Amino acid sequence: MAELTYREAVAAGIAQEMRRDPNVVLIGEDVARAGGVFKATVGLLDEFGPERVRDTPISEQAILGAAMGAAMTGLRPIAEIMFSDFFAVCWDIVANEIAKTRYMTDGQVTLPLVIRSGNGGGSRFGAQHSQSVENWAMAVPGLKVVAPAYPADVKGLLAAAVRDEDPVLFFEQKSLYATKGEVPDGEHVVPLGKANVLRRGDDVTIAALALMVPRAMQAAEILEKEHGIRATVVDVRSLVPLDTQTILEEVAHTGRLVTVEENPRLCGWGAEIASIVAEELFWDLDGPIVRITTPHVPLAAADNLEDAQIPSVDKIVARVRELVD
Amino acid sequence: MDAILTNTTAALREPRAAIDRETRLTLYRRMVECRYLEKRAHDLFLQNLIKGTSHLGLGQEAVAAGFGVAMRPTDYTFCTYRGHNHTLVRGVSMTKILGELMGNSSGLMRGKGGSMHLTSVEHHMMGSYAIVGAHLTIAAGAAWSARYRGTDQVAVCFFGDGATNIGTFHEALNLAVVWKLPVVFVCENNRYMEYTAIHEVTAVEHPAADRASAYGLEPILIDGNDVDVVYTTALRALDAARRGGGPSLIEAETYRHGGHSRADPGKYRPEDEVKEWLAKDPIPRYRQRLLDLGIDEETLVSIEAEAQRKVDEATEEARRAPPSDERIAFENVWADGGAAWRN
Ligand SMILES: Cc1ncc(C[n+]2csc(CCOP(=O)(O)OP(=O)(O)O)c2C)c(N)n1
Ligand SMILES: [Mg+2]
């Protein structure tokens, strides 16, 4: 075990896969010489050289189009979209081309590619550099969607994404880049589509993603210590494929479900999970399903304003208490 | 600018004389096959045997045929929804094309793609793309991969005049030049987008060629209705790309004989313009050239008869094919063949 930051785990995951497979290549704005604007790709240019690690112009459509063209002809590209907000300028390539080409061609085209992107708030960047857009991706058939919370999962899930034969959107939470965690030594791969149960309790199941996972964990500790409420915390990790079995099992045990989502309210991933649980586990529920989300507003830049918007530990504690008490 | 364009075109006249008889007959055969197949597609629409929409390449056969003959089997084609010709010239069977248009089990994609998305990876025909301009970036990616893998494959990307005004045109050209990619961008300027003339909405006269210099490329403006010119231009661009010379941007002037799509009779086009371009129809024009070159009429008649026979047979075969099994509508979202998003 080594302690790595979340950003170091990104580079470690990419390096692990590039050493293993010469067809893995990395492109994006500032990813090579500068090592990424979030310093998540530091060292890769030195180790793998300029043919495999390439800086691109500010051309999000060309970055993803190039990744797609390369993937359909034998490479396994990793493309970076610097901020996930910029998916809005290349969404055609994501949603119309990458997502649908396998289907439309009746399986003739395979697209083993990964699109990494800095996602989410907490960095005081304002409404166009802070969004959580994983639900945009989740709404399009043909895309796999992953959002890790801890360095070990960053490395392991990124490795699995590179090895996957389908396109994977890999959301890195920007506020987590500096966080640290133990990462297993040697080859490390975490399969896609497996939620992780981080702690178990009898009273309520909290399902969270990315930045919301450490907040849910903190909330669970406070709930137990200060209020005697014992919570299960599920790190969803992968939205597509979605590990509904794990979530259903945990909710069946506690009888209550709370989702904690960073995205704005409407059509967040928690709504999908809530509908599945309501449909398949209705008679096991002891109370309403509660969704804690950012309200349906753009994110503000100032720290106190943004903090008032994104679900906080206090807010999670308060809502869970209302539900359970 | 005009002087450069004229010179470029003049330089192409000379090698034209060097095309051998067999190649010329192949060029003619390909154009005739495209023409007859598209006419048949049109008829099948009128009979309601083809649903949805379709964008015919009638009148634009010389571009597809000239490139198709010049390309090596391993070169990649990327084209638009107006891509039946480009698909056929790569050697894809007429039955599979018509079957896809009819949307049944004999189709290239068994009806999952439709007229606008013909793809045959086995022929390195990497797809027909229906979002204007998107595939220019994808073709650049295939070219990047070809070079990275150390092959001498070239990607050829066909698009309309309208695509020169969308952002991907700029993004793809810039990237292709900066990375010196083996890709040939071919703008088929048929003077119209859907209903609007390209000159009404474009800052320059030649939508692709006049912009070549912005990417440090040679402006290449050719008569896209002269298959010899297309063929020699294609050879030159493919060869340059193969030898590491980077991308080319070619503007081929042409004209569609019909409307934009099935729903469009094309009435917005001035009558004398239509007349002028029908007189430049690439097929009768080439036929006459072949006769002038001493090729006998009988040879041409037999090429035409053979093409017609193939189209008739393919039509029958495609018509007889059963509908696709409805299960396939729910398959092949993922590489494992399935569509599961949850466990
Ligand atoms: C991004 C986008 N905008 C608009 C359309 C609708 N559309 C389809 S074809 C077309 C005209 C394209 O003209 P051109 O590029 O000249 O190609 P042509 O049809 O003449 O071959 C338009 C506007 C589209 N498919 N994609
Ligand atoms: Mg046009």
Please give the structural blueprint.
The complex is a heterodimer of chains A (325) and B (343).
Chain A: E1 2-5, H1 6-20, E2 24-28, H2 44-48, E3 53-55, H3 60-71, E4 76-83, H4 91-98, H5 101-104, E5 114-119, H6 134-138, E6 144-146, H7 151-163, E7 168-173, E8 180-183, E9 196-199, E10 204-208, H8 212-227, E11 231-235, E12 238-240, H9 244-254, E13 257-264, H10 269-280, E14 290-294, H11 303-309, H12 313-324
Parallel strand pairs in A: 2-3, 2-4, 4-5, 5-7, 6-7, 10-11, 10-13, 13-14
Antiparallel strand pairs in A: 1-8, 6-12, 9-11
Helix pairs in contact in A: 1-7, 3-4, 8-12, 9-10
Chain B: H1 2-16, H2 21-46, H3 61-70, E1 76-80, H4 84-88, H5 94-102, E2 125-129, H6 134-148, E3 155-160, H7 167-178, E4 183-189, E5 220-223, H8 227-242, E6 248-253, H9 271-278, H10 282-292, H11 297-320
Parallel strand pairs in B: 1-2, 1-3, 3-4, 4-6, 5-6
- Give the CATH superfamily of the largest domain in chain A: Thiamin diphosphate (ThDP)-binding fold, Pyr/PP domains
Number of helices in the DSSP assignment of chain B: 11
Gyration radius of chain B (Cα, Å) is 20 Å
Number of spatially distinct domains of chain B: 1
Q: How much helical structure, as a percent, in the residues of chain B?
A: 40-55%
Output mean pLDDT of chain A: 98
Determine and state the CATH class of the largest domain in chain A: Alpha Beta
- Which residue ranges of chain B are poorly predicted, with pLDDT under 50 across at least 5 consecutive positions? 1-13
The structure class of chain B reads: alpha/beta
- Radius of gyration of chain A using CA atoms only: 19 Å
Percent of residues in helices of chain A: 25-40%
Distance between the termini of chain B: 62 Å
Q: Looking at the structure, what is the overall shape of chain B?
A: globular
Q: What fold name stands as the CATH topology of chain B?
A: Rossmann fold
Q: Could you name the ranges of chain A where pLDDT drops below 50 across 5 or more consecutive residues? A: none
| Mean pLDDT across every amino acid position of chain B | 95
| Number of continuous helical runs of chain A | 12
CATH class of chain B: Alpha Beta
Largest sheet geometry of chain A: 7 strands, mixed
